Task: inverse folding
């Protein structure tokens, strides 16, 4: 699970990671209702996109609240709500080991290859 | 070791800011940046929900069903804006309950503009045109602020705010071209809302306490006075189309700078309203606290329902 956390998509890194931030990052548990992340499909043919989050006691009410909060002006044709606690996220601090290798492998890109100037349709 | 870790955090953060990249919730950030954002986003959220009150005052007395439907939609939008912003603040590690408590106990503020009373129906139009207009000028640069969730919330807010401003202007235009008493009511509303709207941009640059760090962190992209000038330049021609006067004898076009020059703002009034001595400070907080208290049973029922559901699932 190195580099993977289960604290929710839009949640701050744990207080332990924000060294010395004890005064501004409260350690009290989040009280009240569960946090849900909302995804909206703007039009048929597009994928669902994250638009924000809300509090709700269950999925059904989360969906209704998402409709009221995020689609008052025809912003979407479909909504997903996901418990924030169900989202696993990569650690932004591990950006280098996570994402650099892909950039090193420039032979994965079409521009890597030198072709004869006269060739067409490639 | 702590020093090394901290300098690592600072340098990565500084590099992201320097590259004009956005800071996201799970990024490490300086404590002061986090604290500044929590304060600013929370106060912005508080302003949205307190801002429902002055106009909510006219919901039952709107002059037509059309105006009532428009006003309901606008007040609902303000509630939505508050929710986007509370959610953005929560990504920084505070809870909504803490923020509401800070509002209710006066530890965090909201925009001074909402402490003025809505005395006539024309005030609803003046608020849409001037107050929402000033909010748009303030908020558009925030769509590019360095903190991702705040910037994204501002994109949604700005899209919706445009309707608020236009409905207000239209309403005021109808009154300004109506009977003599309707016109007088529109003028009176503009007379009362103009100066408080200019104060919405905050103290003059020479006296602003929060500006320099916020500018370095790219939370703030323009100074208070720059934004205030932009607003004045937009409003003067709009007032001419309305056929209403802006209540400033010193207001004049300055050929050299290409801007309208305006008179001295009464900063004593601004400070007094911020410090609690505005016309409606007490009433606004009292009403907010009462609404929160009256909603206790709803929050408790929802929490009990959630516990039951989660218990059943386990």
Result:
């Amino acid at each position: 699970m190195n580099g993977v956390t289960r604290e929710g998509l839009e949640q701050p890194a744990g207080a332990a990671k924000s060294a010395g931030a004890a005064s501004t990052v409260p350690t009290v548990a989040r009280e009240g209702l569960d946090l849900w992340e909302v995804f909206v499909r703007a039009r048929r043919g597009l994928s669902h996109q994250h638009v924000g989050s809300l509090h709700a006691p269950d999925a059904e009410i989360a969906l209704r609240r998402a409709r009221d909060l995020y689609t008052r002006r025809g912003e979407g044709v479909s909504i997903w709500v996901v418990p924030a606690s169900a989202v696993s996220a990569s650690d932004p601090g591990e950006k280098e080991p996570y994402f650099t290798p892909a950039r090193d492998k420039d032979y994965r890109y079409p521009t890597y290859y030198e072709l004869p100037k006269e060739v067409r349709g490639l | 070791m702590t020093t090394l870790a901290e300098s690592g955090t600072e340098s990565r953060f500084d590099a992201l800011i320097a590259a004009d990249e956005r800071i996201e919730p799970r990024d490490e950030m300086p404590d002061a940046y986090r604290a500044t954002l929590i304060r600013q986003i929370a106060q912005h959220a508080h302003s949205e929900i307190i801002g429902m009150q002055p106009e909510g005052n006219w919901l039952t007395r709107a002059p037509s069903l059309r105006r009532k439907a428009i006003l309901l939609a606008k007040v609902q939008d303000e509630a939505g804006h508050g929710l986007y912003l509370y959610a953005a603040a929560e990504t920084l590690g505070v809870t909504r309950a803490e923020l509401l408590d800070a509002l209710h106990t006066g530890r965090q503020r909201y925009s001074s503009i909402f402490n003025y009373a809505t005395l006539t129906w024309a005030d609803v139009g003046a608020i849409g045109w001037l107050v929402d207009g000033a909010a748009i000028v303030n908020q558009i640069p925030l769509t590019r602020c360095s903190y991702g969730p705040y910037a994204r919330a501002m994109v949604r807010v700005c899209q919706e705010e445009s309707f608020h401003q236009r409905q207000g202007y239209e309403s005021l235009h109808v009154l300004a071209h109506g009977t003599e008493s309707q016109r007088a009511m529109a003028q009176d509303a503009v007379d009362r809302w103009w100066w408080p709207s200019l104060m919405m941009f905050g103290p003059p640059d020479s006296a602003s306490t929060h500006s320099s760090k916020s500018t370095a962190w790219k939370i703030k992209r323009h100074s208070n006075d720059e934004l205030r000038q932009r607003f004045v330049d937009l409003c003067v021609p709009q007032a001419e189309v309305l056929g209403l006067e802006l209540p400033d004898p010193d207001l004049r076009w300055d050929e050299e700078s290409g801007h309208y020059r305006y008179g001295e703002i009464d900063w004593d009034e601004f400070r007094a309203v911020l410090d609690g001595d505005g016309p409606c400070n007490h009433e606004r907080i009292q009403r907010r606290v009462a609404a929160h208290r009256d909603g206790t049973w709803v929050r408790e029922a929802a929490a009990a329902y959630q516990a039951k559901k989660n218990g059943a699932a386990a």
Remarks:
- The radius of gyration of chain A is 21 Å.
- Chain A touches chain B through 39 residues (CB under 8 Å).
